[in-house]
Amino acid sequence: MRAHHPTFTGNRALAQIEPLIFEIGRLEATGVDLDEPGPHRTRLGGLERQEPIGLPGLSEPETMRHYVRLSHQNYGIDTGLFPLGSCTMKHNARLNERMARLPGFGDIHPLQPISTVQGALALMTELARYLTTLTGMPAVALQPKAGAHGELLGMMAIKAAIAARGEAATRNVVLVPESAHGTNPATAALIGFKVRPVPARDDGWVHIADVRPLLGPDIAAIMLTNPNTCGLFEPRAKMIADALHECGGYFYCDGANFNAIVGKVRPGDLGVDAMHINLHKTFSTPHGGGGPGAGPVVLSEALAPFAPVPFVRDDGQGFQLVENADDVEGASPFGRMTAFHGQMGMFVRALAYMLSHGSDGMRQASEDAVLNANYVRASLSDLMSLPFGDKPCMHEVLFDDQWLEGTGITTLDMAKAMIDEGYHPMTVYFPLVVHGAMLIEPTESESKASLDLFIASLRDLAMAAKAGDTARFKGAPYHAPRRRLDETQAARKPVLRWVPPAPMPAQAAE
To answer: Is the distance from CB of 312 to CB of 143 less than 8 angstroms?
Structure first.
């Protein structure tokens, strides 16, 4: 499927091949001129470098071109629809970016005197007010740098509350549904809890009848995602919360999918005790590539006293950042989660999103996210199979691989073929409770025209798969900068260091 006209450079017009910087750099080249150091006495104590450092050198134009060319090989939300399920890859408004770059926010430092950052602390206070109002929870801790970090904070608050009751030795089991994000059991296990699974049913929901037999004096909490990873709202969440509270446990809600219910449902009304909120998903702050993230945790009245420091307090004379647990009266902070107060840039972006949308706009964003996901579901349900039946979903729609049975094509093949069509693949093989899962989350950002083209592309791929066009899938992607990798080998034996190629033998060189 590639063009049959090779080029001398290997480039294909604007599709340029870009080698590693080690392959094109030269030891003698540099984009910066530095004066030779004058006479000086070394303080390295015999640790001076004896060999050349071996870093590649490029001129400034070469450096710029190298990274710009690499950026052309990336796919992002500014490139096209990004359907990764459970990731909420929505549009990042440029207004939010402009606000984050204002000098009073972009140029401050966490060690500045408190008197010089009153505006930043006021913004954090206002963001906290929005988050507690939207969730119906009395308190929020802003420090966590990501969703999993937020999970850790919430579960550590639960552990502290249990210890304060004198039950640390006996109340040590956390219930986790089989459809949960993998970070849920990992977080619980990390801080010493035992994990007990809640079985999945063929309707995609967690049932109170499956939870009740597991409850007892050893249960510390349940970690329930709502809406869940199958793209469904958990209708029995309040019943589950009440049952946990009756047995002395707590209800941790994984808020990764809060984008589907903002302005529609307040988790506090469902009996939630702790829930992290991914600002980098629900409230449109950029994410990907390892950060930056932000995962504030809202807390119930029962857990609020155990929230960690630091936090902002208005003492009537101005805002203060409470840094020490000993300075908190009537509460027992379990400690610190991070050196400072969280991701300031993400706080600014998230509040800008909230203010620009207003309460009605945020509610409409959730409604549109659900509408778009159901439009995708309804448009593909005749060709692709739905593991829990053709019923309404929330913000994302989940397909399985039953419709591919007998074609010789797998979920992975389908994902790779999507790359050739110009789309980032959907989330594949998650949640694990569904065989060959394909999880699509279009978010509210997409127009009907954008969705129609995406749907038409998937329909074309689905029909090609059923028609036996296996070559289109098994070799895909054909048009990407790199062909398909051996992903198992890449995971088990990653090559993390560049090694110069061996010099050619003299005879071969001749």
So the answer is: no
Task: Give per-residue pLDDT as tens, 321-366.
Answer: 999 888 888 889 999 999 888 899 999 999 999 999 999 999 999 9
- For residue 231, CA distances in Å to 66, 122, 373, 438 come to 40, 36, 9, 11
Of all residues in the chain, the percent with pLDDT exceeding 70 is 97
Positive or negative, the CA dihedral 214, 215, 218, 220 is positive
Is 31 a residue whose pLDDT tops 90?
no
Angle in degrees, 0-180, between the axes of helices 147-164 and 183-190, rounded to the nearest 10:
40
pLDDT mean across residues, the chain = 93
The rounded distance, in Å, linking the Cα atoms of 63 and 67 is: 7
| Cα–Cα distance, 113 to 103 (Å, whole number) | 16
The span from the CA of 31 to the CA of 21, in Å, is 14
Residues 6+ apart with CB under 8 A from 460: 421
Asked if residue 76 has pLDDT above 90, the reply is no
How many other CB atoms are there within 10 angstroms of residue 143's CB atom? Answer: 24
DSSP-assigned letter for residue 166: T
pLDDT, tens digit, for every residue of 386-429?
A: 999 999 999 999 999 999 999 999 999 999 999 999 999 999 99
Going by C-beta distance under 8 Å and a sequence separation of 6 or more, which residues neighbour residue 457? 418, 421, 422, 423
Phi, psi of 252 (to 5 degrees): -95, 125
How far apart (Å, rounded) are the C-alpha atoms in residues 150 and 294?
Answer: 8
Q: In Å, how far are 286, 340, 450 from 324, measured between CA atoms?
A: 31, 12, 51
Contact in structure between 287 and 293 (CB atoms under 8 Å): yes
The CB-based long-range contact list for 499-502 (8 Å cut-off, 24+ gap) reads: 500/22
Question: Which tokens is 482 given?
Answer: 């790199």
CA-based diameter of the chain, in Å? 83
What is the pLDDT, as a whole number, of residue 27?
84
Provide the 8-state DSSP code for 270. Answer: G
Distance CA 187, CA 153 (A): 10
- Kindly write down the DSSP assignment for every residue of 393-457, as one continuous string: -SS-EEE-SGGGTTTT--HHHHHHHHHHTT-PPPEES-STTSTT-EEE---TT--HHHHHHHHHH
pLDDT at 1 (0 to 100): 45
Which of 151-160, 274-283, 284-293, 469-478 has the least mean pLDDT?
284-293
CA distance 153 to 388: 33
Q: Is there a contact between 215 and 254 (Cβ–Cβ < 8 Å)?
A: no
255 DSSP assignment = E
Return d(Cα 457, Cα 451) in angstroms, integer: 10
Q: What is d(CA 377, CA 203) in angstroms, rounded to the nearest whole number?
A: 16
Alpha helices in 110-263 (DSSP H): 118-135, 147-164, 183-190, 208-211, 237-246
